[in-house]
Amino acid sequence: MSPDSGPAASPRPSGPPPSNLPSRFDAVDLVRAKRDGGELTDEEIRWLIDAYVAGTVPDEQVAALLMAIYWRGMSPRERDSLTLAIVASGEVMDLSGLSRSSVDKHSTGGVGDKVSLVLAPLVASLGAAVPQLSGRGLGHTGGTLDKLEAIPGWRSQLTTTEILDQLESVGCVICAAGASLAPADRKLYALRDVTGTIESVPLIASSIMSKKIAEGTSALVLDVKVGSGAFMTERSRAAELAVAMVEIGRSANMKVAALLTAMDVPLGRAVGNAVEVAEAVETLEGHGPDDLVAVTVALAEVMLELAGLPGDPRQALQNGSALAVWRAMVRAQGGDPDAPLPRAVVVEPVLAERDGYLARLEARSVGVAAWRLGAGRAKKEDPVLASAGVRCLVKPGEPVTKGQPVLELHTDDPARLERAKEALRGALEVTAEAPGGAPGPIVIERVG
Fold first, then answer.
1. Is the domain of 277 the same as that of 351?
2. 3-class SS at 219?
3. 369: domain CATH number?
4. Are the beta carbons of 279 and 271 closer than 8 angstroms?
5. Are residues 314 and 397 in the same domain?
6. Alpha carbon distance 253, 422 (integer Å)
């Protein structure tokens, strides 16, 4: 990521500079306190984060603290204090000069989740400023920036001045976060990744919310995915994370709500990079898949509510206004909305083995297959193939005949096909009878 040092970034909150802090506390004492189930004070947490960013507290001591937090948890006060200390480690964008109300959305990630590509221009077309600072994919879930980089010429690196100008003129921006926003989070996340502490709910919540608070938006809607293709596979854990993030947002005087949405089946019919961009454009043209439209509209309605704006998201998808904002956003970031998207050199179908109805299409397996085809990465440094991915030609509940293509595997490297097929073994189930009962709701619950 490139430094984001435009004039609209405000300085970190006042307080002693990191170089003055190390003598005030002993990191080992803080580790012991948390190890033994104690609570750290706000001052101790702020000191630790500042000292860690300054390099006066080493990785091994913070790693020990992260493991203690993993096992002992954090009180809501500690969690909120940690989040604000991470925010204070860098700059905070100032969106107060915009003529539009600002509102953003964050997703915890899923398979085929191209909602941001549709949602940002949709909500912007109804009068909001939507600053989507996004990331890249890792593992079986895709990254918004990877998808958009399939568009010829499109660029993710913008200065703060460019972000503000685009929010004012276009209404939305999707780009990488600048290096000056919440730098402590990058250090902590890298350490969590190698110490097995990623799954801690307070650490997840503080990581997500610190970046959103630093972004400067006044309102935020969280899309917390639940199911086999999501990071949180259990509803109770997803709800716990949603509540934690809503509470953190409120402690920072942000309007926040969360929706728990289903992620047992890929969202829409495209999983990958260019194939998801194509499906997002189809949705903006008014004929997207029902499940993708349902999630996008539900999130848009809550975003407009929090921003205090009227408007009908479904109508904006049908009348072309959201599509016009999408095209303006792509152009503003150097892309050509009319340029052909990359197409895979190799396209191979996965065929139904019997007549009947598709009863199950397991999201995680499809995500892993797309990853192995080249759409994702195992390490953040890995390249991705823009053309790679999976198209879901049949979704659960729909009829199939023996030999009918159910999925299409897209890649530029035929050597990748076999491992992708391995990932799909057992992921599809065809039954003689149609699945009984109505499918579960795509939007499960609202928090906040």
1. no
2. strand
3. 3.90.1170.30
4. no
5. no
6. 48
**Radius of gyration of the chain, Cα coordinates, nearest whole angstrom:** 22
* Boundaries of domain holding 379: 346-431
Contact call for residues 172 and 326 (beta carbons, < 8 A):
no
Residues 283 and 142 in one domain: yes
Structure tokens at 283: 């949705």
Say which residues have a Cβ less than 8 Å from residue 357's Cβ, sequence separation at least 6.
397, 398, 399, 400, 430, 431, 432, 433, 434, 435
What pLDDT does 7 receive?
31
How is 18-37 classified by DSSP, letter by letter? GGGSGGG--HHHHHHHHHTT
Do 362 and 315 belong to one domain?
no
Domain presence at residue 127: yes
208 is a domain residue: no
Mean pLDDT of each 10-residue bin along the chain, 448 residues long: 32 38 78 96 96 95 97 97 97 95 95 97 98 79 90 96 97 92 93 90 96 95 95 94 97 96 97 97 97 98 97 96 98 97 97 96 96 83 89 96 98 96 96 84 94
Q: Give the CA diameter of the chain.
A: 72
Query: Which contiguous run of DSSP H or E holds residue 159?
Result: none
Q: From CA 346, how far away is CA 399, in angstroms rounded?
A: 26
| Separation of alpha carbons 186 and 180, rounded Å | 10
- Global confidence as pTM: 0.91
Cα(395)–Cα(65) distance, rounded to whole angstroms?
45
- The residues carrying an active-site annotation are 106, 185, 192, 207, 211
CB count within 10 Å of CB 217 equals: 26
Integer Cα distance of 313 and 128 in angstroms: 12
Domains contained in the chain, number: 2
Handedness of CA 64, 68, 74, 78 (dihedral sign): negative
* 353 and 322 share one domain: no
Contact yes or no for 139/108 (Cβ under 8 A)? no
Contact 336, 330 (CB under 8 A): yes
φ, ψ for residue 176, nearest 5 deg: -75, 150
- Residue at 395 is within a domain: yes
Q: Please report the pLDDT score of residue 55 as a whole number.
A: 94
In a domain, 190, yes or no: no
309 φ/ψ angles, rounded to the nearest 5 degrees: -115, 140
